[in-house]
Fold this protein.
Amino acid sequence: MRKILFFFLSMIGLTLQAQVPVDLKGFDKKGGVQATVSGAMLNVEWPAGNAETAKVSIDLNKTNPLIGSLGIGTKEKQYTIAQNLDPAIILTVGKRDLVSQNGWNIFFDKTAYLKYQSYAVKLDKTDVKVASNGSRTEITVNGAKAGPFSGAIQFTLYNGSPLMNVAAVMSTNVDSLAVIYDIGLTSRETPWQKLFWADTEDFMRNVAVTKMDTVEMMAVKYRTIIGQGKEGNLAVFPAPHQYFYPLDNCYNLEHIWYGENYRNLLPGFGIGIRHDLLGDRRWVPWFNAPPGTQQRYNFFCLLSREKDGKVLENVKAFTHSDKYEPIPGYYTMSSHFHQEHVDDVLTRKPLPDMPGFVKAFRNTGLNIVHLAEFHGPGSPRGPEAKRWPELKMMFAECERLSGGNFLLLPGEEPNNFFGGHWMNIFPKPVYWLMSREKDQPFVEDHPEYGKVYRIGNKEEMQKLLEMENGLAWTAHARTKGSTGFPDKQKDEAFYKSDHFLGAAWKAMPADLSQPKLGKRVLDLMDDMANWGYKKNVLAEADLFRIEPNYELYGHLNVNYLQLDELPKFEDGWQPVLDAMRKGKFFVTTGEVLIPAFKVNNAAVGETAKPDAKGNVEIALDAKWTFPLNRAEVISGDGKEVFHDIINLNDTQAFGQKNFKFTQNMKGRKWLRVELWDVAANGAFTQIIWLE
């Protein structure tokens, strides 16, 4: 009986120790990557650039850590960066409100304040697949589970770079879920000698790794923590924009962690990236997780032989050091900031000559910033004794803080007359009041302020825009206070006017199953074109208070406006409005740039003519940091929207190219182009109309 029992227990042990099968049928042996199984290890080596080769070894033994080792080196010698690591992912799962407002587009949700449950992703290795995908290699380890989610752990390796993406690719059948996630790498041992990071003032810091029973969380710059071993460094960092779900404030919420037993869910010593469950303590919508979608809870790793945190310079290159790269003939602009600087000045708060928010904008490479003052404080509807001095102070402060290569523009989010929420901009200072009594004139000359306007209805608001050559557009379209807009406005005279620009784009809501950001407004952009109106879509940030030590870049997007020079505040800024109205700009998160875009040699603002068969040649210059994922040519015939996907999986990191695509546009009335990279960073053009 003892022999039978011993045999039975031995067989269970062997089963648990047995290595999982590896499927190499989808792997291209001619792609410059080597994938071999040696004993209980799957070894994958890929060309990492600079005559180096990077290597990841996947442990096929069910009970061992998933990553046997990570290394980098040359043909002569391989250096081991770390050994015996497990990807560490925690999903915190809450309930999404799909009823009270606008379904999955909701922002005003309270997920963090309702019941939720946190789950560490557990991996029961069942099988492994290695597949080639252009210039990248995907290693998929099935058998991952976390609460109501199941799926796989996937590694993506990028030829030409020591870059690796690690993702828990998970789906659920449960409806109405919202998720927030923490990520990193853990070990049963202590694989690092030192840890490095850049503090919020951009100084490199480090700590020696010792036995500890606690976890440290820190506010850092560049969203990166670096583990240093005996032979090299490993940087852990998230996708720079995709990792941040939309918030009102871009506080730096201590986005890195290191230590033992993180959140009592990840045993062992770990390093990683984290979210604060309560966000900015306002509205905290987390990430959407619609049933049946493949959510990618992911992060990046960058391998390096260099010591002392020098690999951070290579990480920073992916975001141009969190700055918007200058392009000849363009100036960067971002819009929709509720800084309420005027209220700070009028309440006599001690302020430096250059306030923190201006330093933050200028440090990020912004040339033009369009404010949205008086969103809370202030007197937009009067009384006039307050309103006129408030406007005067805004104009004076914008002029004072402009100069050099920076232009601070006055603006408001009026939320009156037109319905929904909307933004406005004039090409010079304009005094106007958002109310008018019956016995008051629409416009008059004021002895101190000059011409002043009083607005009582939407017709007068349109008239003001026309008289002062201003622009208006829908803010956060189809969500927040603009739920149902501009759809409800499209037959209004003011919407049809050339002075109603269109709408503004922000990556909201967040959905990690999508290979792009901000689908809500991208879809609206196509709908507006099919309505037949020549509208444009501007990037907006929609942020409140900002300081230099905040995580501004992760929440930001910009417009690259075509301008010969930056206007001086005192001369007015009509050229800015002209570029906006004509669509002479592209929108980007910063990592993907489109400095040139033409269709049959017609640029935005012009009309392109297809050939006799309906074909057009689309030409665009592109520059990028992360490897590109796809180009998308979107077009419409006035009723339907068509998406032509062009796979760019053969691109490598840090490239520049003139792309030319021939597409048949027979029966189409318009087209535009989007470019997206592997971190869901992207850029999109405005629309070119077709004859």
Observations:
- The first strand starts at residue 22 and ends at 26.
- Residues 4-16 have pLDDT under 50 and may be disordered.
- The first helix runs from residue 2 to 17.
- The chain has three domains: 86-318, 330-584, 591-690.
